[in-house]
Amino acid sequence: KNSVLSSRSEAVTFSTMFRSEHPRRSSSHHEWRHNKENSNALADDVPEFQAYDGTPRSQMPDDLQEEQNRREHHTDLFASPNLIVRRGQEFRISITFDGPYNPSKDGFYVEFRIGVNPQIHKQTAIIVSPNQDNKGPWQSQLLENKGNIIEMGITPSANCIVGKFLMYAVVVAPTGLIRDKENSSEIYILFNSWAPDDTVFMHDDTERMEYVLNQVGTIYCGSISNVMKRPWHYGQFENGILDACLYLMDDATIPLISRGDPVVVARQGSAKLNSQDDNGVLTGKWSEDYSHGRAPTSWTGSVEILHLYASNGVPVNYAQCWVYAGVFNTFLRCLGIPSRVITNYNSAHDNDRSLKTDIIVDCNGKIDKKYTKDSIWNFHCWNECYMARPDLPLDFGGWQVVDATPQETSDGLYRCGPAPLYGIKQGVICYPYDSPFVFAEVNSDVIFYKRDKYGKLTKVSVNETYVGKMLLTKAIGQDVPINITELYKFPEGTMQERLALQMAESYGTEKDRSVLPKVDVEMKVTVKPVTLGEDFQLVLIFQSLGRSLYNVDVFVSGNVMYYTGVSGPEFMSTTLQVQVDPSRQKTKVPSKYMNKLFGHGNLHFFITGKVKETGHMLNIMHPVSLISPQLTVKVTGVPQVNQRMFVTVEFTNNFGFSLKDVTLTVEGTWVLPPKTKTYSSIAPASTITWTQSFIPMDPGLKMLMACLDCEYLRQVCGTASVYINV
């Protein structure tokens, strides 16, 4: 079998192997995970002979018409040879008898069983027959009778359980049943966005092609002033991934009877993707010590991660938000739930969901790290999945926000969503799940307080437009971003925005309503795009809003900062005195940072100003994402099926120092599994070149992607596409 897990019993073995090393995965955890309510394990204790008890079972259908069924059900991309269909849509099977089939005389059934103790009333056992009117949830019909061969059409209900079933053809004999245990047939049933009665139905075929069938995506990162991107191989149809996703549902203890509900699957899946409280798929780490795993920036896709977790049940090290979002996207698309990765720039992590992100400044004008608990991420990635919400009022279906990155607990577990996007925009955040938290991520005010030496806090300024500055996702069918900010909130300052905020406040959030003194001087900051390793100048622009001459004491603090808003070493500290008249003044501040920089570090400037004449305070936060060098990726050879080809990755070290302990990873959709090469050192001005061969086995457009990673370089990627001919 082309799968990581050939049976659920193997999943038990894999997990048990590591029980002694990971005491949190207790014996009771395994027993609960694999009991009849929470496991897709297939029963292996069915007797060979059984007297007729009303639920007969015998040998499997002899022709499952896999090729035609998979093509019609849009599952032909799966590497598994099994029959894989989507619910709410008919599939066909052929059955051969040892004599002519007589519909009026022969008692004949097809039975589907899931789990270790299937029961009809729980729809874990389903029986259909062409000989009678089907009153159950699944439908069937006799399509053709050729004497001893019949063709039968079967339509799983549009809300049936998603998972792996055993299928039997059954003939009732007077003496009972003789079961050929070696002839059972496995069939996978998935969500179906092509079926109008399925809760994940989408009307537009181009959207289905992108959000269900596309295996390669782009995840956006960087900062609002320097949007960067990295390719990601979702690989939802790759060998073993479907079984790995079913294994995750087992491990997440999702009851079988709930596995037809995309709300439950998405919510429980968001919890299981992180290891924060249940030893889930990925361990998050936002520091620089990745010695016990791989740096989050070194991954090129989800396939290797899911293979590793499914093979041993141990969390994979390490992840940050885009890795969680990339793997979660694979999980959702593999099961048939339309999904996409979203990037929110200037994303608030509001611990109390108050719509207030509080920044405390000390007497010297620096951010007081001890008392500042809220944070603003340069960017944060989450997912949206598409589904109806029959549990909510009309209009709350459609895109739902889900987030697997562990930030805050929800009902006791680190998970988030599904939160209806419609409700977030309208401010109706009273409905499940976690809408207030998501609303705060895109709508919080940034409030600056000055803390004096006695601990007294004085509010000095409020920025209502800094958070949720822009939300991006990949465009349909194109490798370009589209701005979807308008799906999350109304334009700043409009009546609709005010009404949405008022609505959110009525459900317990609280917007800042204080009135601050009129501003005398306006301060702005600009920085041209900065390539990693280059020094640059910070440009401060001052504008008098009155007619007087003002004197402003300015303090500029520059820190290396993680993209999550956690501050690192300070690389500059400067005090300026600026005279501001009604004209516009520019002040340039030089900046050098390399001796303080660490991998994946961004630069963050915090600028405060005090107007001497009025005592008014000015505050600006400005992140700077450094542009990383790019990899050169080239594909050579005859682009034809079964012909050897080559991918060459090239990188030149243009820095004035050696790069140590460098890893280079290359991966290609359907043509090349992840390959990694290490370099102990790359000297200044030297170039490395790595060529890897591959043989494409099927035609179509393929993408190859490469990623270089080391202590000083954490976002170095490159891609190349090639069309393979027959």
From TrEMBL:
Q: GO biological process: any one?
A: nervous system development
- Which molecular-function annotations from GO does this UniProt entry contain? metal ion binding; protein-glutamine gamma-glutamyltransferase activity
Residues annotated as the enzyme's active site? C321, H380, D403
Q: Name one Pfam family in it.
A: Transglut_core
What the entry lists under SMART domains is as follows:
TGc (SM00460)
Note describing how the cofactor binds:
Binds 1 Ca(2+) ion per subunit.
Spell out the residue ranges making up region: Disordered: 1-71
* UniProt KW keywords: Acyltransferase, Calcium, Metal-binding, Transferase
Organism domain of life: Eukaryota
Domain Transglutaminase-like: residue ranges: 313-406
Species annotation? Scleropages formosus
What is its EC class?
Answer: transferase
Recorded protein name is: protein-glutamine gamma-glutamyltransferase
Stored SUPFAM superfamilies = Cysteine proteinases, E set domains, Transglutaminase, two C-terminal domains
* Residue ranges with Polar residues bias: 1-18
Binding of Ca(2+), residues: N443, D445, E492, E497
Q: Which cofactor does it need?
A: Ca(2+)
Query: What EC numbers are recorded for this enzyme?
Result: 2.3.2.13
Q: Where is the composition biased (Basic and acidic residues)?
A: 19-37
Describe the family membership recorded for this protein in Swiss-Prot or TrEMBL. Belongs to the transglutaminase superfamily. Transglutaminase family.
- The reply to whether Ligase figures as a keyword in the UniProt entry is no
